[in-house]
Write a structure and sequence with these properties.
Pfam families: Ras. Helix content is about 35%, strand content about 25%. The chain has 5 helices and 5 strands. The strands form 2 sheets. Strands 3-4-5 form a 3-stranded parallel β-sheet. It has a two-stranded antiparallel sheet with strand order 1-2.
């Protein structure tokens, strides 16, 4: 997601509608250089079938971002995560790393999804959880 790209590349990725981007970035972790390839895919209702499966097969880990101000973006997460797990873990016994990120933490006055809901969903689906603000 744009948040991950912004963190890793230190660049702001503006609103870009339904476009997909692949970003590459290298980072040194514990003295080892690691090359990240980030496939930033905005959610759309058209995401289904073989194109989504290809994206899932391509990736080693997943960051699913929802808006704390948009209940629909949160409600779609369980189905997306189940699809990812069925696609990735069905082929191997390894657990796929998935993190759920609630964005727009700076817009508390417009919040419709509580932090507790996000934490409970992540716990129930065995995912990591964070709340952030891309604006900050």
């Amino acid at each position: 997601a744009a948040l991950t790209v912004r963190f890793l590349t230190r660049r702001f990725i503006g609103e870009y509608g339904d476009m997909e981007f692949i970003y590459s970035h290298s980072l040194t972790v514990d003295g080892r250089e690691i090359l990240f390839h980030i496939w930033d895919v905005p959610y759309s209702q058209a995401d289904e079938g073989s194109s989504e499966e290809k994206r899932i097969q391509w990736a080693d880990s997943f960051v699913l971002v929802y808006s704390i101000c948009d209940r629909a973006s949160f409600n779609i997460l369980p189905l997306k995560i189940q699809f990812i797990k069925a696609t990735k873990e069905g082929m191997s016994q390894e657990k796929v790393p998935i993190v759920i990120v609630g964005n727009k933490r700076d817009l508390q006055h417009q919040r419709v999804v509580s932090s507790e809901e996000g934490r409970l969903l992540a716990l129930s689906l065995d995912c990591g959880f964070y709340e952030v603000s891309a604006a900050e």
